[in-house]
Amino acid sequence: MLELRDLAAVRSNTLLFRRLGLLLHAGEALRVAGPNGAGKTTLLRVICGLTEPARGEVRWDGTPIRELGDDYRARLAFLGHQEGHFGDLSAAENLRLAGAPVTGSVVDEVLRRVGLSALADQPARFLSQGQRRRLGLARLLLRVAPLWILDEPLTGLDRQGVELTAHLLAGHLADGGLAVLTTHQDLPGLDGVLRHLDLGA
Amino acid sequence: MLGQVFRRELLLAWRRPGDTLLPLTFFVIVGSLFPLGVGAEPQLLRSIGPGAVWIAAVLATLLGLPRLFAADQHSGALEQLLLSPAPLAALVAVKVLAQWLTGGLPLALAAPLLALGFGLDFADLGVLLAGLLLGTPLLNLLGAISAALTLGLRGGGALLGLLVLPLYVPVLIFGSGAVQAAALGFGAGANLSLLAAMLVLALVFAPWATAAALRISLD
Fold it and tell me: Which residue, B47, B111, B150, B184, could crosslink B160 as a Cys pair with Cβ 3.0–4.6 Å?
């Protein structure tokens, strides 16, 4: 359970949002909308714990995330604007050395699920933008993280890629996961579980 | 987690030999240009030798510092590092260790060869090597703090140099001082002990300070 309590954020002396309160339960996704510069990315970074809110706090299962520290980060998977791939490592190496030790068969399976099996040995710098996004999705699947935080996951993806993302997200939510994401595109097949937050309003 | 990051750093260093070998190349070039520029006066060369090798080592280390975090920040890998469920100070320590193994250690091992060009005695070469083996990880650890503090700043490179040079001064003084003391027959023990003490302190505090600086830089 993710709780935002009276959150406010300031970026270069501009108040982005304030009095933001929200409760997100297992199986629910929050879609953050708003015009450019409304603070969508900042909100996601606050929820990750990368940026300190000007006011308020984020709680996970009732405990402030600052107190949870690594226990919270173990439950979190973040896909940012930049995916964080290493261009000199192959797609498979990027996954194998992403953090938690994983076996080669897990890596193969995850690459197959995002449709990158044929490019497993390709250095990540030769991947197209859409393929890099897919590799980012693959990293989310590597370990079991209940909370996904996705910053514009659909940018650069083709139609199949968008459907794949929606499919993976639906599976994650059906397993009792939570997700917070920003996107300007429609996510098919998530109508019942998607909640909306408009930062521009 | 730590093991994965360590293997990743070493693999990346192996895949980017140009970046990895740059400090070593720079070190060898500066160290071999010195005798040519100063002239072939054996007594003079022997007296400036330790200082020249140490200055070259400090500058070569400085050259590799911005690389420690800048590329990872650009690619988003640094955010992932900050969000990984392991103590950030330990992750930083692993990164610095990998940087030293691929940068500082080769530099220390190449130093005796350079020092031969200055006509240093065989015993003094050992002291120089010992000093650099203690000093280069110290330079990397102190440099990591400054690299993290100046991360993402405009003109960060120049600021990095300004920040790190005062920290490098004691290392340089005790390091080159060790060889000079040995050459004069005083024994290098005092200088080397001080270097070792500074290394122990830096091992404890530098990763922690670097981690704190990284969190601020990425806020």
Answer: B150
